[in-house]
Amino acid sequence: MRTFSHLKGLPVYEQKTGNTVGKISDICFTNTGKVQGFIVESKGWLARHRYLPLDGIQAIGADGVVVYDAALLQSFSSFQNGYSLYGERGIAGKPVITADGKKLGLLEDVYFHGQLGIIGGYEITDGFFADLTEGKKRVDAVPFTVGEEAVIVNTTM
């Protein structure tokens, strides 16, 4: 299991041609913790974001992501349901509140199982100094609700 921050920025290679088709810029997932895919930033003068469904990925490695065919990349508008960390439906930086009203901190990253396609947990920060002295917190993956101002996790602490 790894955090998305270790995957962000990795190149996406097309096995069919050996070419780089872009780099990973965001992760897409549901509120129940199922990874749907990734957002790939295409290279070139007219850089654009494309959606890469999880089932289009052949391998996720330490140095890159491999797809068989770049044609598997879809228009960004294909991603309509679910959430991301940084994009239009991004939840990074939002306060995380438990179902019983306790503030845990700000959502910073997600832990995910690449092979299983599930979110294993959420990384929570209390700020730079608290992270240095106490470390970051980890909350196991549980269903959540996203509002304009907070992420409510369906658990009690």
From TrEMBL:
Domain PRC-barrel, chain residue ranges per copy: 4-67, 91-153
Gene3D superfamilies found in the cross-reference section:
PRC-barrel domain
Q: Which residues form a coiled coil?
A: none
InterPro entries documented for this protein: PRC-brl_dom, PRC_barrel-like_sf
Matches recorded under SUPFAM superfamilies: PRC-barrel domain
**Pfam families registered for this protein in UniProt:** PRC
Lineage top rank: taxon = Bacteria
| Protein name (Swiss-Prot/TrEMBL) | PRC-barrel domain-containing protein
Species of origin reads Parageobacillus toebii
